[in-house]
Design goal:
Oligomer: heterodimer
Largest sheet of chain A: 2 strands, antiparallel
Largest sheet of chain B: 22 strands, antiparallel, barrel
Strand content of chain A: 5-15%
CATH topology of the domain at 34-160 and 167-188 and 417-448 in chain A: Serine Threonine Protein Phosphatase 5, Tetratricopeptide repeat
Distance between the termini of chain A: 80 Å
Number of strands of chain A: 9
CATH class of the domain at 34-160 and 167-188 and 417-448 in chain A: Mainly Alpha
Shape of chain A: globular
Number of helices of chain B: 11
Structural class of chain A: mainly alpha
Strand order of the largest sheet of chain A: 2-4
């Protein structure tokens, strides 16, 4: 009997002597209470923001290009067909995903801003702040252009802080974005200080100029854009093709990089834009786009169209072995866009301009691809139509068209016309996406829907 | 030691005083009513502890006083008293205890007589279970126990069925019952049941209510399956062989049309005319019955050899089993090898050592696509190009993609498009007749050019040391565990999909899992006169460690190497997780005069999965019973011979389905496209995450009529699951779209009946029956602010489910069908074959003249209202036969397969521009057109056997030889409403009880016929 008691005691002691075994720390992940404590960790958190950005362009083309007169889905079916014909439902999965991925980027940026005090190198502290604010502004800008009034998230929030679930008016959102970008432009280093893919002060300025154009601050935009054009760090590529196929070239102001054949760092929008993609392919050229191609646009045409299938665009064709793991980078801002925005800023809301600086910018774009220029002798004029058309084909499939039409007030006319030809009914409420139904459901009634949905 | 001495002295004091006559040696044989000798019968001199038991041949020998009275007893037999009267040869015939077979049930940490058990338990005796041609133990449990539903959700070779005890409790995660093997907790995942050999199983019990489950408190919220394996018996070694060979096939189902049948249908509706497309199809002339191609049937074989024996002190059993199931689908199969050793031995007088070791290996090849994906291919598509059909291949299409098509290539639908019917040749201008409805690769290629495997090697082991400290008190220390290595591989070759080389892949994911459990048990059992007490205290420590590795390779341009070469690697990772559980348990069971029964237990569990302050949970339970027929006031009668009233109340817990560290806000490494890496928050922290718990009240009635000829068990239960572990959707502005919380309340309420009768028992012929019936009602009581949450499974086919308070956890939600759109308004009403229009008229339920989301309603739910089974057993001389009929009623299923098979989701099936009622129709997928009745009645199994007479066999040294034939699902009847191959099918890949009941191409219900033999020697 005494043996058994001994044994029992032994076992009980054995069980009790491990130091609080119920506290298992994760092995292959890190708990957030153990992180954000050093400069190095904050750098890692900042880099994580860029990882979040990689999700944004994946189907952005569907909610921008396919809703414009540039592109369409191949089959017209399902969620994708809704974008073609402006019959987008609030339950459309892409509408919900775009909302979520952008707010996730904002969350990552806010997380960094919350924890900046852990950084003990002052220059890095300012740099991280700049990078976070740039990305936060970019995502808010994506959201406000797509959905209209949206909640502004200027800090990290808890699940129950419901005052943040309500939508803020567009003007306030634009003001917030402007402030973030103005600060970022001063905090960020110039091009070349950081690896390609991270924010620069020039990127912040380029984006700021775009925001100014959206809010009617034409003079502010013009001065930024002029200095960017004059910036020796950037230059238009000699060949149009190289802009897209020579990665990291000097025309690119900000891009989201990807890697070929990598399970984590590849994109698949290149694949979706081919016949193998979902519903037999997305982002196909519309008949209208093909019909209105600029005549003799010999250098751009082979890049705009996939020579193997003239209905597909040729800007993002993959070179990877696995067709679904593509490495083509996504260009957010490039110098050609800056040139054309420059003209728009000078035009300042008018329908035409004869300003020589504007004409010079226009000719730079035309000249690069060997198209004829506009006269610089005082007779030349650039109309809004010319500008929009040039933007349409220079920046085709880079997710600018829809917002260009909206920003310049031409959306209603152009899209109604386009819709008539295609048999789609366009109404002004179609310029904004519906707020995702799922988000409205969980907001407890605080998030309201856009008109027309 | 001193105590030992005392006891032996005590024994010796019982010997007769020297004044009496000397002891004599008696011997004899104990037989039953049927003349068969019975081993293991106790023969004890009454009032003493002088005794022995009969050996394997029923023989005994004992030294006793000449006028002693012997008490002869055994489980299942009526105790007999025999006076020695100076005889030396005493043969005894025992008769069966008809009243109750004194069944013992295995409950947590011990066994208890079923008659004295106050909880709800169902027991299956594994007598015929091992003869059913199933490769998994859980498949054989269909219909065997009330309250336990086993659903064949995907009966491909080796795939797990879904097992539920008393309904779906957990809202978010698996409601799988806990599995306990020989007293050692194995876990909630059904994985274990795939490698267990049914031949090794002695009995299976299911603890259904919270009070019996409370002893396994944590993780016992969804019922507990107690599996007891066969053990050794004293006597000469007895060998056993059991083998069977069977064939499985799928009954023909004609709900899809052939080109001929479709042509007839079109002629009838189109004024005798065929369309161009059908003319071309008829000219092509092929008919591939995809059912025949994909459901190719298969053989199932099983061999099991075991040896069992022992001496007085050591008993052992060992077995070896092999099973191979070729599966009814084209490339599914399952192979299993099992080895087992079980031993227990008396080390010293009071110390026993037990050991159980069970390594096994399984190899499963899985069917690589959904069955619907295979069946939906057009019936005119040939499998391969041959001399007759190669002329139809259009070599100009898709930039000459098939310019080099040859005989022997797989045929793809698009190859046959653009055929010029007038000229009788493929049209180089690409403006001929198109008959393809998909750009997909040939379904046969999708299956044959892919390989998906799951290989597992497992070792289960446990050992125990038991110390009999003193009379009624023992201490037992067990140490058990399991090791599992699982390897999942997936390969797709160059011809596996329409994208050819672009979609080739080879992936591997492995998991190594260690699990150990340490238990210290102290048990005290004592009878004080009329009082009987059993108290137990347990301390348990359980630990898991798992290591997960994945490798992914892509970009192969040939099929030469199918493993993972470094050059093709695109992704890889390795992760580790740990978990543990600490438990303290105490239970006391008391009965007075074997008439008043009471049991109470309390358990405290701590799990590392929960937040800092919420790791522990308390799980108490109490149950009581009253055996009314033993009361003096109970009239002595022959009708109601036994009446027991019982009730139980208990709390159990659940922590399964969430990962080990989810209460933390976790950061994971992330990369970028510019070569720098970072760390990113992966989930929202849930620091207060705690136990999900279930509270249950279960009154019941056990009755026996006519001296035990009829036994009836009745249970009513109400179980409330609260603090459910739930992924709650949250506004994305927080940064995530969901967070893990304890929220919500689900109630399951129901009744269970179990009736067993001995209809006719004579020496030559006997007939017994059992019937079970279960009714369960599932209600979402509280969803904590997410009432009315609408969920979808698939963004491409977004049919809706709703979680509404007052309704079951998940109900189908959508519009109600009004009528079909006339064929004249459908774009291509006769194309493709079997097509149905995409849209359908729906009812304006709120009468506002508009069809909008307000016209949606609840369309049904996937939970059955009644599940029943009836089993009959017959015995006539050397023949025995049994059959079971089982049915389920009231469940519906959302059969999405028809969306694919009838090509509804294609713009080809849209309505025309002349159709004026576009605002009165909606897509079929959102209506009750796809909600089909999943009720069925089936002759689940029938088994007829012949046992050769013992005398004839004994000359050859054989103890028993029995041959049998059996059939499974011989008759299986489902509702006319259901269109498919398996009304029980549920897509398990989704694991979300909020969208339960989604059926998308499950494996079909199969019929199996087997021939087998049992040989004991």
């Amino acid at each position: 009997m005494k043996y058994s008691i001994f044994f029992l005691a032994f076992v009980i002691v054995l069980g009790a002597c491990s130091k609080d075994p119920l506290n298992q720390e994760p092995i292959s992940q890190i708990s957030e209470t153990q992180f954000y404590n050093s400069t190095e960790e904050l750098e890692w958190a900042t880099i994580a923001i860029y990882d979040g950005l990689q999700d944004v362009p994946l189907r952005e083309f569907a909610i921008t290009e396919m809703r414009s007169d540039n592109a369409r889905s191949n089959s017209g079916e399902g969620d994708w067909g809704q974008f073609d014909s402006w019959t987008v439902r609030p339950t459309n999965q892409q509408v919900g995903t775009y909302w979520t991925v952008n707010y996730n980027v904002i969350f990552r940026a806010n997380r960094v801003l919350e924890n900046l005090d852990a950084v003990d190198v002052p220059s890095l502290k300012l740099q991280f702040e700049g990078e976070a604010k740039f990305c936060r502004a970019l995502s808010h800008f994506n959201l406000v252009r797509a959905y209209g009034d949206i909640p502004i998230l200027d800090r990290e929030i808890e699940r129950d802080e419901s005052e943040f679930f309500e939508r803020d008016p567009v003007a306030e959102v634009m003001a917030f974005i402007t402030q973030d970008l103005e600060e970022a432009a001063m905090l960020l280093p110039a091009k070349g200080a950081l690896v390609f893919g991270r924010a620069t002060s020039e990127a912040a300025n380029a984006l700021l100029a775009k925001v100014y154009l959206n809010t009617g601050n034409y003079s502010g935009a013009e001065s930024i854009l002029a200095s960017l054009i004059a910036n020796p760090n950037y230059a238009l590529e000699e060949n149009y093709r190289d802009v897209f196929y020579s990665e990291g070239n000097d025309e690119i102001i900000f891009a989201i990089p990807y890697i070929n054949d990598d399970g984590n760092e590849s994109q698949d929008f290149s694949f979706e834009m081919t016949a193998g993609g979902v519903r037999s392919g997305l982002n196909y050229l519309t008949d209208d786009f093909i019909a209105n191609l600029i005549p003799n646009d010999a250098e751009r045409l082979p890049v705009l169209q996939n020579s193997d299938n003239l209905e597909e665009n040729g800007k993002f064709m993959t070179t990877s072995s696995d067709v679904r793991l593509c490495g083509n980078d996504w260009i957010v801002l490039r110098l050609a866009d800056v040139y054309l925005l420059h003209i728009e800023a000078i035009m300042a809301g008018q329908l035409a301009t004869q300003n020589l600086d504007a004409i010079a910018s226009f000719n730079a774009i035309r000249g690069r691809v060997g198209l004829d220029s506009v006269a610089m002798d005082g007779t030349g004029e650039i109309t809004l139509d010319m500008l929009l058309n040039e933007r349409r084909y220079e920046l085709a499939f880079e997710n600018h068209r829809l917002y260009d039409l909206i920003r310049t007030g031409q959306a209603q006319t152009v899209l109604t016309n386009f819709g008539n030809n295609e048999g789609y009914l366009f109404s002004s409420t179609d310029l904004l996406l519906p707020i995702p139904q799922g988000e409205i459901n969980v907001s407890g009634g605080l998030l309201s829907q856009n008109p027309g949905y | 030691m001193a105590v030992l001495m005392l006891l032996t002295c005590h024994v010796q004091a019982q010997e007769p005083t020297p004044a009496q006559a000397k002891n004599i040696t008696i011997s004899g044989v104990v037989k039953g009513d049927d003349g068969v000798t019975i081993p293991g019968i106790n023969i004890v001199v009454q009032g003493t502890s002088i005794g022995t038991s009969t050996d394997m041949d029923g023989k005994y020998s004992l030294s006793v006083p000449p006028n002693a009275t012997l008490e002869i007893s055994g489980i299942g037999f009526k105790t007999q008293l025999v006076v020695v009267e100076n005889r030396t040869k005493i043969d005894i015939t025992l008769s069966e205890d008809v009243e109750t077979l004194e069944e013992h049930v295995v409950v947590g940490y011990g066994t208890v007589k079923k008659s004295h058990f106050t909880g709800a338990v169902s027991k299956v005796q594994a007598e015929n279970l091992d003869q059913m041609p199933h490769s998994r133990v859980d498949d054989a449990l269909v219909g065997q126990m009330s309250g336990v539903t086993v659903q064949q959700t995907n009966p491909a070779a080796g795939e797990a069925p879904v097992m539920r005890v008393r309904g779906q409790g957990s809202i978010s995660f698996d409601s799988n019952p806990l599995i306990v093997l020989d007293g050692i907790v194995v876990g909630n995942d059904g994985d274990f049941l795939s490698s267990l050999d049914m031949n090794d199983v002695e009995s299976i019990e299911v603890l259904k209510d919270a009070s019996s489950g409370a002893i396994y408190g944590s993780r016992g919220a969804n019922g507990i399956i107690m599996i007891t394996t066969k053990k050794g018996v004293e006597g000469p070694t007895k060998f056993s062989y059991h083998g069977y060979l069977g064939y499985k096939d799928v009954p023909k189902n004609d709900y899809l049309s052939s080109p001929d049948e479709w042509s007839n249908f079109v002629r009838e509706n189109n004024g005798g005319e065929l369309t161009d497309r059908l003319n071309y199809i008829n000219q092509l002339g092929t008919y591939t019955d995809w059912e025949d191609v994909m459901f190719d049937g298969g053989f199932i074989t099983s061999h099991s050899l075991s040896a069992k024996g022992g001496t007085k002190n050591t008993k052992f059993t060992t077995s070896f089993g092999y099973q191979r199931d070729e599966g009814v689908l084209l490339t599914d199969n399952f192979e299993k090898i099992n080895f087992r050793v079980n031993m227990n031995t008396k080390l010293r007088n009071r110390v026993t050592l037990g050991l159980n070791l069970n390594p096994s290996h399984t190899n499963q090849r899985r069917f690589p696509i959904g069955v619907h994906d295979a069946i939906r291919q057009n019936p005119w598509l040939p499998l391969y190009l041959d001399e007759t059909n190669i002329q139809y291949v259009n070599r100009f299409r898709e930039n000459g993609r098939w310019a080099d098509a040859q005989i022997g290539d797989y045929a793809m639908e698009r190859m046959f498009d653009d055929y010029d019917l007038l000229l009788g040749q493929p049209d180089p201008n690409l403006s001929g007749v198109d008959i393809s409805s998909t750009s997909n690769q040939n379904a046969l290629a999708k299956v044959l050019e892919r390989d998906r495997r799951k290989r597992q090697t497992k070792v289960y082991a446990n050992t125990y040391l038991k110390f009999d400290i003193m009379d009624g008190l023992y201490f037992k220390q067990t140490f058990g565990g399991d090791f599992r290595y699982t390897s999942n591989t997936r390969w797709a070759g160059v011809e596996a999909s329409r994208n050819g080389i672009g979609d080739t892949e080879s992936t591997l994911s492995t998991q190594i899992r260690w699990h150990t459990v340490n238990e210290s048990i102290l048990n005290y059992k004592k009878k004080f006169g009329d009082h009987s007490l059993n108290a137990i205290g347990v301390f348990a420590y359980e630990w898991w460690s798992r290591e997960q590795t994945g490798l992914e390779a892509a970009g192969f341009d040939n099929d030469l190497i199918q493993t993972i070469p470094q050059a093709n690697l695109v992704n890889g990772f390795r992760e580790e997780y740990r978990e543990n559980l600490i438990s303290y348990v105490a239970r006391a069971t008391y009965d007075y005069k074997e008439r008043y029964l009471l049991s109470a237990s309390i358990r405290r569990d701590g799990s590392s999965k929960f937040g800092l302050d919420s790791k522990y949970g308390w799980f108490p339970a109490v149950s009581g019973g009253w055996i009314v027929n033993k009361e003096n006031f109970f009239p002595e009668n022959n009708i109601l011979t036994r009446l027991k009233v019982r009730a139980s109340y208990g709390v159990t817990g659940n922590n399964s389905g969430i990962n080990e560290y989810e209460h933390y806000g976790l950061l994971v490494p992330v990369g970028t496209g510019f070569g720098q890496n970072g760390y990113n928050p992966f989930n929202v922290a849930s620091p207060n995450l705690g136990w999900e718990s279930l509270t249950e009240f279960n009154p019941g009635l056990d009755m026996a009529f006519l001296g035990g000829r009829v036994n009836l068990f009745f249970d009513y239960y109400v179980r409330n699951s609260v603090d459910l572990l739930l992924d709650v959707p949250i506004p994305s502005v927080v940064g995530f779209d969901e967070a893990l919380e304890n929220r919500g309340k689900v109630r399951n309420e129901g009744v269970e009946f179990e009736l067993s009768t001995k209809n006719y028992i004579t020496k030559d012929f006997s007939w017994t029956s059992t019937a079970t019936a279960t009714h369960n009602k599932n209600t979402l009581v509280d969803f904590a602010g997410a009432d009315g949450l609408i969920s979808i499974v698939d963004d491409k086919r977004p049919a809706e489910w709703i979680a509404k308070e007052g309704q079951p956890i998940s109900s189908f939600y959508g519009y109600v069908v009004d009528k079909e759109i006339p064929l004249e308004y459908i774009n291509n009403p006769y194309y493709p074959i079997n097509a149905q229009s995409q849209d359908i008229y729906v009812r304006d339920l709120n009468g506002d003249g508009v069809i909008d989301p307000d016209d949606r309603t609840i369309l049904g739910d996937p939970y059955p209202d009644l599940v029943w089974s009836v089993t009959n057993n017959f015995k006539y001389r050397n023949f025995d036969a049994s059959f079971m009929v089982q049915g389920s009623h009231g469940a519906e299923v959302r059969n999405i397969s028809s969306q694919y098979i009838k090509n509804e989701f294609s713009s080809n099936q849209d309505y025309t521009t002349e159709f004026a009622d576009a605002n009165l129709v909606t897509e079929r997928i959102f209506t009750n057109d796809d909600i089909q009745d999943a009720s069925y009645v089936a002759l689940r199994n029938i088994n007829v056997g012949y046992s050769f007479s013992k005398k004839a066999m004994q000359k050859a040294g054989i103890q028993r030889l029995r041959l049998y034939v059996s059939a499974t699902n011989l008759i299986y009847v489902w509702s006319d409403d259901y269109e498919g191959y398996n009304p029980e099918g549920i897509d398990q890949g989704l694991r979300n009880p909020l969208t339960y009941g989604y059926q998308r191409g499950p494996a079909p219900i199969y019929r199996a016929y087997t021939f087998g033999l049992n040989l004991d020697f």
